[in-house]
Amino acid sequence: MLNYWKNAALWKKVISGFIFGLGFGLLIGLFKSKIDPNSTLRTITQLIPGLSFDGLTSVLSAGGKLFINAIKMLIVPLIFSSLIVGITSMKDLKKMGRIGLKTFGLYLLTTCFAITVGIVVAKVIEPGSFMKSYYASNPGVIEQMMEGTTESKSAPSFLETLTGIIPNNPINAMANGNVLQIIVFALLFGIAINMAGEKGKPVSDFCNSLAEIMYKLTYLVMELAPYGIFCLMAWVSLIFGTAILAPLAMMVFSLYLACAIHMFAFIGGVIFFFGQLNPIPFFVGLIDAHLVAFTTTSSSGTLPVTIKCAEKNLGVSSNISSFVLPLGATINMDGTAIYQGVCAIFIAQVLNIDLTIGNYITIILTSTLASIGTAGVPGAGLIMLSLVLESVGLPIAAIALVAGVDRILDMARTMVNVTGDAMASVLIAKSENELDETIYNQKAAV
Ligand code: ASP
């Protein structure tokens, strides 16, 4: 049994952590509410001397916070290094000129559209409304849950956000974990490295190495995920009881629905109307990449499969795929952008915070930047969510509300991330006459 657990794939462990945590929390919660305080079943939590229901809640809360802190530890170096790697990999823009600009423009446009889909779906479905009504009858519960993790701030105006994005001291921005300022500094820093040419290369190599190390560190932290998620799920479901089920199920449903709309209606539509191609071979040809993305939740890890699918099944020339796809795996994250839109709205609904039009625009802008800075590794979007929350004054600790189901959300968003990259490679190849339509269409016959 122990051996099976040790050798099990991380995604299986994470889903087990989620299911067991949810079950454990609900079961204990049930005992707490239904059982006579003096009954023998009441003593279940007292098998460990001194451990009461409250004690158990504190232990679970501490375990969850440990995981969240480990994730938060990654934010500053991960964003800084991976964004610089993304920008410096665009050095090829000079060589590839037009193609590079098209790629970047397409990535930005599809990302903005993706966030909008996420926001609209979350506004229509209102996944936070169940928890919101619970919250209304139990004021203070959510603050208690997030207590000590961070302080909540009042929402800054759009203008304040805009003027505050340039850091007057980048070291200060890093020390304070001001993610938006770090992103702006990293963007400018990356552009300056490119401009410095040969002289900038040592720093660029250093950032590459730092990014690799941070990806590895992210993997290490993700090893904690099954246990962290167990604690978070058990803790949240112990506090909320069955009330947690509805909002989380609706949250997962909203994300999957938004991803499906983006993937099939938007990406399929763009392939059809702008690429003048049948979208069916596109989706059929990408099945391998979809499955790998869904199970590994890493678009960087899926990259070799995506390139293979694009070249062998979709007929994209290797010239185009070798440039567009790696760049996409670094900077183009449509699924992550959808996720950030859905989560921000969900959290605002749960916390009963009304967002202004300025807030929505801020969410679109920061989610675009955040998705550019998100590494193509498992769980990276959860880390970047803090940036989006912070930009509209939502408490960062509220990621505790969605962290428990993050793996399930990550599966869908990574699949969409990979699909968005592949779409760009097909469209750009088509516009450059580098798409072999005979290969592309052969999948239509399958
Ligand atoms: N796991 C995603 C990817 O690799 C990133 C994320 O966490 O949103 O594309």
Silhouette:
globular
Helix/strand order: HHHHHHHHHHHHHHHHHHHHHH
**What do the pLDDT scores average to?**
79
Distance between the termini: 42 Å
Radius of gyration: 23 Å
Q: Based on helices, strands and strand pairing, what is the structural class? A: mainly alpha
> Which regions contain 5 or more consecutive residues with pLDDT less than 50?
39-43, 148-156
The CATH topology label of the domain at 91-198 and 243-440 is Proton glutamate symport protein
CATH superfamily of the domain at 91-198 and 243-440: Sodium:dicarboxylate symporter
CATH class of the domain at 91-198 and 243-440: Mainly Alpha
The name of the CATH architecture of the domain at 91-198 and 243-440 is Orthogonal Bundle
How big a fraction of the residues is strand?
Answer: under 5%
State the helicity in percent bands: over 70%
Strand tally = 0
How many H/I helices?
22
What does this protein look like?
Helix content is 76%, strand content 0%. It is an all-alpha fold. The chain has a domain of 306 residues: Proton glutamate symport protein (Orthogonal Bundle), CATH 1.10.3860.10. α14 runs antiparallel to α15 and α15 runs antiparallel to α16. It is globular. The chain starts with a helix and ends with a helix. About 3% of the residues have low confidence. The site of aspartic acid has 16 residues, from α19 and α21.
